[in-house]
């Protein structure tokens, strides 16, 4: 009996351990509540945009704010998709630009990242530092030279003027370089001993290992390209070639007034592809960000 009591006393939780567990649990609850409140705070503008997209223009800025529209004005979405200011063509143009940019940029930066991360050649570090230094140049300073260049080669006012500049990204190359540099070199050396070439090693061994990083980059490229207003404003003049950000300006009249209901409906519609892509690839995105954080 005494032995059982001694064992029970030995395995019983210590008071200090219990207090520490309670504090950790309370801290976890507090962090969860604060993060939830912060998330709700960031969702407020989106909720207002969705609510405004279903209101008449005069009801959008009424005070006090009415979150649930009455009546529901679905004509705003009909105007966006089937009306005279239909955005279907703009969505098609943005889709072409985004898909071409994602495929091209992932192909270019994965090859560059592999070269900087796994291969060894003379001047490698100096070349990589020089490449990183280009990121210090503000993108706005390149708009005028880019405009003049594309105009001279005949690609101005075409979708290629939006696709080609996005094929080389310093950030994406750096991210994949870090990923490939952390991959085991023994795998490549073993493949070379077996007679595999660099192309086969890259395609069959290292590229599949970079799938989470590529998925994360695809999300970031999609988001930045889909919402790129500045480049499209400079490079595109033909309305038939407008992308979604430029297409939203069609809801502004010549005197500067904006049809807020249809404009909000168009903005909500433009967010749907971004949300869908993130939900599809979020597992790979979070996995890649976690691996980057661990490094």
From TrEMBL:
Record carries keyword Transmembrane: yes
Keyword Transmembrane helix appears in the UniProt entry: yes
Gene3D superfamilies (UniProt xref): MetI-like (1.10.3720.10)
UniProt-listed GO biological process terms: transmembrane transport
Protein's membrane topology: Multi-pass membrane protein
Leader sequence segment: none
Family annotation (Pfam families): BPD_transp_1
CDD domains reported in the protein's UniProt record: TM_PBP2
Keywords from the UniProt entry: Cell membrane, Membrane, Transmembrane, Transmembrane helix, Transport
GO annotations of cellular component type: plasma membrane
Domain ABC transmembrane type-1: 91-281
Coiled-coil intervals, chain numbering: none
Compartment(s): Cell membrane
Residues annotated as transmembrane: 28-48, 90-114, 126-147, 159-180, 201-222, 260-281
Domain of life: Bacteria
UniProt similarity note: Belongs to the binding-protein-dependent transport system permease family.
Protein name, entry field: Carbohydrate ABC transporter permease
